[in-house]
Amino acid sequence: MAPASRPAAPRPAAGAAKISTVSSKKNRKATRDKLWGGAFDKKTHAGAWAFGESLASDEPLTVYEIFACEAHVKMLAKQGIISSGESKRLLNALEKMWPDAYSGKLAMPEGAEDIHAAIETLLLETAGEAAWKLHTARSRNDLVATTTRMWLVGSCCNLIAQVQLFQEELLNLSEQHQGALMPGYTHQQPAQPITLGYYLLAYFWMLQRDGWRFERVQEMADLSPLGSAALAGTAFPIDRESTAAELGFKAPIPNALDAVSDRDFVGDALHACAMLMQHLSRLCNDIILWSTAEYGFVTLDDGYSTGSSIMPQKRNPDFAELIRGRTGRVIGHWVAYQTMMKGLPLGYNRDMQEDKPPLFDAMWLCEESLMICSGMLRTLKFNTERMREMAGAKFSTATSLADALAMKGMPFRKAHEVVGNLVKKCIKKGWTFEDLTPERLRKLVPEIPAELLKVLDLEETVRSRESFGGTGPRAMARQLRRARTLLRQPGFKRIV
After folding, report:
1. In DSSP terms, which residues pair with 299 in a beta bridge?
2. One domain for residues 236 and 111
3. Which of the chain's termini has less CB crowding within 10 Å, N or C?
4. Rg of the chain's alpha carbons, rounded to an integer?
5. What is the DSSP string of 367-420?
6. Can you give the pLDDT at residue 37?
7. Do 348 and 451 sit in the same domain of this protein?
8. Distances (CA, A) of 31 to 27, 111, 118
9. Angle formed by the axes of helices 196-221 and 264-290, to 10°?
10. Which of 277, 295, 463, 465 is nearest to 389 (CA)?
């Protein structure tokens, strides 16, 4: 999205101040605290002004604001709307902002309503009254949509890279544990035996869908609103194609009213974030459960655990719990966005100011959560012996026996009933399937041939499921090869 000569904007360091201010007399004289007001007799109420200003929340857009200003100035000069001298002064002044803007140290003027007013005020100090021509043939309406789209496309690049790194962790662990038996669950009850590698691959495919969604978000955002002005275009002879190309967009949005009204790309991003966090939350919930004494399937590394302030023995899965908890925050952002947008009349409305803080927070939370999950999985110790011990719990191989009877000609519904009767009688006697002998089987349920006892073996059950996507070794090998091939390819291809 950004021109190749400019690096993408970094995320501010955690805990860093969002905005610094300048309060010198010189600065106060230069400050135009708003980009409007000629028709007003009174100043805005101080409390209302503070309620409405967005400079702090606009901070992530700073570098993209400068990008957009540079592209707009070049176009205005090329079209003869401003002089070459004015263009040169503005571009030189914008260039001087770059080091501080990129490092997050650009000092913002006091009283600026938003990032647009702040940049114009700073330009006024260095470029003089040429700064007042910068806003020719544009509006804050098209400018904020432009910079938000630029930010989102760049942020999707970072997030997609994290998705791929997490997929790599999942695939490596899946290959390592493709034969490690564990219980598979439905309704959180032991259902059928699977392998740890098979389980981990399920999350690989979830992440493949997530990556595909974020690529679509990029596509939706990759169109330029710049030059749409307030809603109806402009009478100036501008060249929207040139600014779109300068900023790296595929094309300008064809309808100016739609360009300033549209926030679908924000909704798409928040939906993709909500889906990704829901997937991570489910994984984290399993890790939380598996780390309990009752399960005993995993031990978290010290680097991804915390202790108790009162109980010395405690090892808490706090970071997995935080991801699970913050998923609610991201889903809430999506709901808040949809609620904010659903009743808006066409055109820009100030309500739309509320789209950016949720978008920024959701994207950053997704990126952080992916990094935490990658590290947590990479350092997780799996207790595969305990997993195998529980793989046969609750008669988990019963379906294999019913299938075997059906393969011999018994209707599956009858086979289901016969095996269910066997389970019921075993429970009454306090037996598991491992306690069965041919003699015991004949006494309990004579309809079941004794030679079918072998299908109750855990390894046999897992090996037998060679259908596409199943747990069998050949099916798993195909799935692993396919996943590895997809991971080596650029982008995220649809699974089907």
Report:
1. 381
2. no
3. C
4. 30
5. HHHHHHHHHHHHHPEE-HHHHHHHHTGGGTTHHHHHHHHHHTT--HHHHHHHHH
6. 60
7. no
8. 6, 7, 8
9. 160
10. 295
pLDDT at 496: 54
The kind and range of the H/E element at 478 are helix 473-488
Q: Which of 308, 374, 396, 416 is catalytic?
A: 308
State the pLDDT confidence band at 25, using cuts at 50, 70 and 90: very low
Q: What is the largest CA-CA distance in the chain?
A: 101
**Span 228-242, pLDDT tens digits:** 999 999 999 999 999
Asked if residue 114 belongs to a domain, the reply is: yes
Percent of the chain with pLDDT over 90: 84
Distance of alpha carbon 229 from alpha carbon 260, whole angstroms? 8
The answer on 209 and 348 residing in a single domain is yes
Whether 308 sits among the annotated catalytic residues: the reply is yes
Tokens of 81: 């709307």
Question: What are the distances in angstroms from CA 102 to CA 99, 123, 309?
Answer: 5, 17, 41
pLDDT tens digits for range 282-320: 999 999 999 999 999 999 999 999 988 899 888 899 999
Among the candidates 346, 366, 390, a domain finishes at 390
Q: Indicate whether 65 and 182 sit together in one domain.
A: no
**400 is in which domain, residue-wise?**
393-488
Count the neighbouring beta carbons within 10 Å of the beta carbon of residue 233: 17
* DSSP letter (8 states) at residue 451: G
- What are the strands, taking DSSP E only, across 9-66? 20-22
pTM over 0.85: yes
* 204 domain-assigned: yes
For residue 18, count other CB atoms closer than 10 A to its CB. 13
Annotated active-site residue in 83, 135, 187, 396: 187
CATH number of the CATH domain containing 453: 1.10.40.30
The size of the chain, in residues, is: 496
CATH number at residue 98: 1.10.275.10
Is the same domain home to 459 and 479?
Answer: yes
Q: What is the mean pLDDT of the chain?
A: 91
**How many domains are there within the chain?**
3
Judge whether residue 186 has pLDDT over 70. Answer: yes
pLDDT number for residue 51: 72
Let me know if residue 14 belongs to a domain: no
In sequence order, which residues have a C-beta less than 8 Å from that of residue 142 and are 6 or more positions away?
225, 226, 227, 228, 229, 230, 256, 259, 260
Q: What does the alpha-carbon distance between residue 196 and residue 184 come to, in Å, rounded to a whole number?
A: 9
- How far apart are the C-alpha atoms of 435 and 231, rounded to whole Å? 77
What confidence category does residue 184 fall into, taking pLDDT thresholds of 50, 70 and 90?
very high
Coil vs helix vs strand at 146:
helix
For the domain that residue 363 is a member of, what is the CATH number? Answer: 1.20.200.10
Residues 212 and 317 in one domain: yes
**Do 108 and 155 share a structural domain?**
no
Query: What are residue 310's phi and psi, to 5 degrees?
Result: -130, -25
